[in-house]
Amino acid sequence: MSPSRESTSTGGQPAMHTPPVVSSQAWEEARLEMLVKEKAHTRARDALAAERRRMPWMAVEKTYAFDGPNGRASLLDLFEGRRQLVVYRAFFEPGVFGWPDHACRGCSLGADQVGHLAHLNARDTTLAYVSRAPQADIARLKARMGWEMPWYSITDSFDADFGVDEWHGHNVFFRDGARIFRTYFVNSRADEAIGTVWSYLDLTALGRQEVWEDSPAGYPQSRPYKWWNWHDNYEAGASPDQKWVEVTDAGEAAFRNKDGVDPKAT
């Protein structure tokens, strides 16, 4: 293995001391060595999510009101009939850098990361953004930036009560009939990686709802891969497409035969 190399300085920047250049065999050996650590990291992340699903819940006793595109809405309304709700407090309002043309740059970067919400909704979970800007300004901003998530205006102490009056963050709630519980909260750097369906579901009380997960007894779970669908093709209560079941079964079997392990256990 050759020693680290110094690249040519460009544009007045100092030279970079880059890693060594090696043969394909040595590169693959280094990759496999790193893979052991990456798999350990994945297992640790799964274990943390399992602990999160066992976190105590906090009953939400106060009534909160928001302005939405269709008028006044309660916190219960934000669920849109689903059992789980993730609420991100985005800073878009007078006094925030960028107002009135833009929301906070960091919150906007996060909004750009949000994937198609149909997949999240298929797991009985709703994502909503909230800010203190009026609805007319929120509608204008969403149209300009191409964002489609539900976005409500805070009208009371919701932000202060849930730790997002001075800093962004994701609050996670669970609905049992008309009763609402706060189940989790993340902010600061924990917000950085949020945006995929998996990152949202891993924050929730029910998790990804797949059979390989370590969840409390009685939690809803189904086989991995089977519930996946095109975002314009989900049907509430529909059984997995049999052809897709066959395709994924074959893929899982090939993976197990190749490595001798279950794909979701690696």
Any chance you could write out the topology, listing elements then pairs?
Layout: E1 5-6, E2 17-18, H1 24-52, E3 58-59, E4 65-68, E5 71-74, H2 75-78, E6 84-89, H3 105-112, H4 117-121, E7 125-131, H5 135-145, E8 151-154, H6 158-161, E9 169-176, E10 179-187, H7 197-201, H8 242-259
Parallel strand pairs: 6-7, 7-8
Antiparallel strand pairs: 1-2, 3-10, 4-5, 4-8, 6-9, 9-10
What does this structure look like?
The protein is α+β, with helices and mostly antiparallel strands and 266 residues long. It has 2 domains: 58-201, 3-Layer(aba) Sandwich (Glutaredoxin), CATH 3.40.30; 223-266, no CATH class. Helices cover 32% and strands 18% of the residues. It is globular, with a radius of gyration of 22 Å.
Keywords:
single chain; 266 residues; alpha+beta; Glutaredoxin; 2 domains; eight-stranded mixed beta sheet; two-stranded antiparallel sheet; 8 helices; 32% helix; globular
Short description, anyone?
This protein has about 270 residues and is α+β, with helices and mostly antiparallel strands.
As for the number of domains, it is 2
Strand arrangement across the biggest beta sheet:
3-10-9-6-7-8-4-5
Tally the beta strands: 10
Which CATH architecture of the largest domain would you pick? Answer: 3-Layer(aba) Sandwich
How far the N terminus sits from the C terminus, by CA atoms, comes to 30 Å
Tell the overall outline: globular
Largest sheet: 8 strands, mixed
Report the top-level CATH class of the largest domain.
Alpha Beta
Determine the strand fraction and express it as a percent band.
15-25%
- What is the residue-averaged pLDDT? 93
CATH topology of the largest domain: Glutaredoxin
Helix content: 25-40%
User: Rg to the nearest angstrom?
Assistant: 22 Å
